[in-house]
């Protein structure tokens, strides 16, 4: 994919969700000093599935609930998500997953 075809909004979110690739995820993660591990990919894939089903990027509470339901209570905790995606896990994880910014995240 060329840089020209990759269009991000002013906050760095991918405008055309079809342009997302795992390589792009790695690139977006590197820009915020995150090295994607298997634990990150679990959340990224879960987020993309969530978006496919509900057509919305989840805010923290629904994200925690979805992670808990799919990956277990140990991972379904905001503190765990913050270790992977510091600051605002829903915003940062959605950005890396090539999804829109969660609606109720500032």
UniProtKB/TrEMBL annotation:
It comes from the Bacteria. Pfam families: DsrC. Its EC number is 2.8.1.-. The keyword Transmembrane does not apply. It is found in: Cytoplasm. Gene3D superfamilies: 3.30.1420.10, DsrC-like protein, C-terminal domain. Keywords: Cytoplasm, Transferase. Its main location: cytoplasm. NCBIfam families: dsrC_tusE_dsvC. Part of a sulfur-relay system. Belongs to the dsrC/tusE family. This is Sulfurtransferase. It comes from Marinomonas pontica.
């Amino acid at each position: 994919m060329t840089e020209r075809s990759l269009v991000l909004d002013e906050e760095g979110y991918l405008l055309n969700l079809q342009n997302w690739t795992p390589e792009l995820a790695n690139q977006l993660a590197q820009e915020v000093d995150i090295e994607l591990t298997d634990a990150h990919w679990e959340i990224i894939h879960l987020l993309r599935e969530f978006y496919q089903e509900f057509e919305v990027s989840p805010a923290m509470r629904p994200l925690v609930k979805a992670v808990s339901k799919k990956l277990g209570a140990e991972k379904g905790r905001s503190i765990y998500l913050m270790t992977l995606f510091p600051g605002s896990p829903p915003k940062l994880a959605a950005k890396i997953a090539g999804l829109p910014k969660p609606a109720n995240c500032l």
